Fold these 2 entries.
Entry 1:
Amino acid sequence: MNKILASTLFLCLSILAQAQEKPKEINELKLNLNENGSHYLKATFLNQVWLRSNQSNPGTHVLGELNNKTFDIGLRRTRFQLYGQMTDRVFVYFQFGQNNFNYLSQTSGNRKIQAFFHDALGEYRITKGSEKLILGGGLTIANGLSRFSQPSIGTIMTLDVPVFAQPTVDQTDEFSRKLSVYARGQLGKLDYRIVLSDPFPVTTNGQTPPSLSGNASFSQLGHHKQYQGLFIYNFFDVEAHTTPYMTGTYLGKKKVLNLEAGFINQANATWTKEGTDTTYHNLNLWSAAVFYDAPVNPEKGTALNAYIGYYNYDYGPGYLRYNGIMNPASSVNGPFPVGSQGNAFPMFGTGKVWYTQIGYLLKKDLLGDGNGTLMPYASLMSANYERLDKQMNVVDVGVNWFLKGHNSKFTLDYQNRPFYLQEGTDLIRNGRRSQVVLQYQIYF
């Protein structure tokens, strides 16, 4: 880690030294490795600070104390990236950082153990100057399923990504990253990626796996590779994918209309038990979606972002998993599902999900010269999971205040979610709760 930080510091100092020769604003931390800049090394950093007020789900306890409402300050993401085109055909990418760091964060009782490598990959371009076929491998977020399964978190349009679209997150992957080899590229208007992944065992995710029961959970016996694919047709501008990450919104700089479809498959990924018989189930996930992001009035700088996607999830019978983003609570007591404390809701499950979002970028310099503009938005996750008694709807509405595009922005978000009672193995909706988050993002 010390060598990485020293190398990053050396890169930054080298760029600053170059900048002193050219008295102009630095737009990026980039070191050119040849005269025309086609070979380069680039560094970025991102920090997302959350201030949050949350109405706790019933039965929530914080460090043993019943708590109906929480206020917390946290780091949703803190990341450093180092990547570059080293030769005409060789590309490297590294990302180091931490996620979901708040007052409860710890690893085996140590709050100082948080940061880890998110990505460490290398790519080889088969033909010089061509995007048709790029082969890559390493620890990577290159996935199948959808654009939100590999999101560029510095450019997302809503407060946060729809995490349900990262369906094995921190179960058999490392914060949605896996050890993989892949082929990706662009054939005319068609963007594709095909991935072979080596998933991690669920027993190494730092949590106690659920007991084997009649409801599917990730298997603790055996090991099987995972196969993924994503195919996107670009009707207008072709999206550039320097890294495997996919942009959330271009803020009117591109005209994008995409039709996408993707899948994730893994044999014997989960298991159930009836009596003395253990049955294994394949993981079969697929989705289809439309994504639109384009200027409305280029002179005024207005733009529209919209997405609608259908996700069909089969983890095995009865699979259901609660998740609360940077959960501000530690436990739940009473007739409530395990893991339902704080701001959690049943985010993942066997069943069907519709997700949609829409946002409108208002005119540039709306708030005066140098004060930026606003982008209000709304999103809806609507899930019909097997073990839920009714359709589950999670609604977010909010507004971005762009001071300097995605480089410096505030986001204010209101979320409304359901909570449930446990009746046997089924969940009965019993009411709704909400949270308000103010985020400040720095991304350079």
Entry 2:
Amino acid sequence: MILKGLKHKAGYKTLKKQLSFDNQSSRKAGEGIRSLGCLVDLDWVEDIAIFYELSERLRLKSNAIKILGYRHQVDNIERFSVPMFSEKDLGWRGEIKNGYALEFLSYDFDLLINYYHQPILPLMLMSSKAKSRLKVGFSSVEEDINNLILSNKVNSFSRFEEELVKYLKILKEI
């Protein structure tokens, strides 16, 4: 228990340092959304098909969306339809030790959706390290991670999707 606490403390220090770096995409604003990354807390979300439907609404190609799921504890017997990572894939200094997560970090996204409503260290580290021009998330998570922050009162995905599309239109991204 003490070691887990120390590991989290070291991870939060790394997160604060990481937030000072610029992980922006090389593309400029107003060029439209061509690629979408989604970091999803699968302890909170049951069906990831909603993200594929969102990508269709944004008129993205089927290979333009990448989803990375997170579970606090992953049973090795469970099978998932998306790449997964968990708490155990976080090293002592905030380094990520998961092949799927490292592959996700290698992409340069136009839009990154941080779909988790609680401050979860591994998800926040992934969000801060991901290269994206625009990051969208909830107000209950570290505000420095996201460029566009939606209210925590967005308790259904359809409401979240409406708000996101509304703001993307205002920003002339779609």
